[in-house]
Amino acid sequence: MGYERDRVPAGTTVAAMTVSAGTDFCPGCGGSLVEQFVSAEGRDRLVCTQCARIHYVNPAPVAGTIPVSDGRLWLLQRGIEPRLGYWTFPAGFMEMGETVEEAACRETREELNLEVRLRGLIGVYSYATGTTIHIVYAADALTEPSAGEETLAFAAFLPQEIPWSELAFASTRDALQDWIRAAHGTA
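Structure (tokenized):
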């Protein structure tokens, strides 16, 4: 039987909360979460069996930069899973209390110890089966990079030198192609 707002017991508050995929228990009351059809939304949702709260599982924002100096873009080899050893630009999850732009600059500092000046948005990348939304900026490198704790190696590439078959994610490929189109008119 599907959850319906008019079937919620009197006095029960139906609150929307965002939780991570794989959550089994309601963060509000500790009750079990079950997947049920919510007619008001026309889709299955996680609903608490005790307090009837709907728990939304939403993609997480990831912010990154494609830092450039002297026409070369800096990429790093990932030192952590997923995709350990594959190439990408600096990017990571946003933290509470920061803007997307601040997160992009922070992740660049953490992964490449590199200060950057953002030049503009390259694009926003999401995939129907993905759990993240990637927001990627073009950036000028203001300092020299060095490997951060999550970085195995780093290198500066001309567009024709990008290791396409060794890129970590579809979003890495798509953002690099968009950067090349914007910067050089080709991809």
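Residues 1-20 have pLDDT under 50 and may be disordered. The first strand starts at residue 16 and ends at 18.
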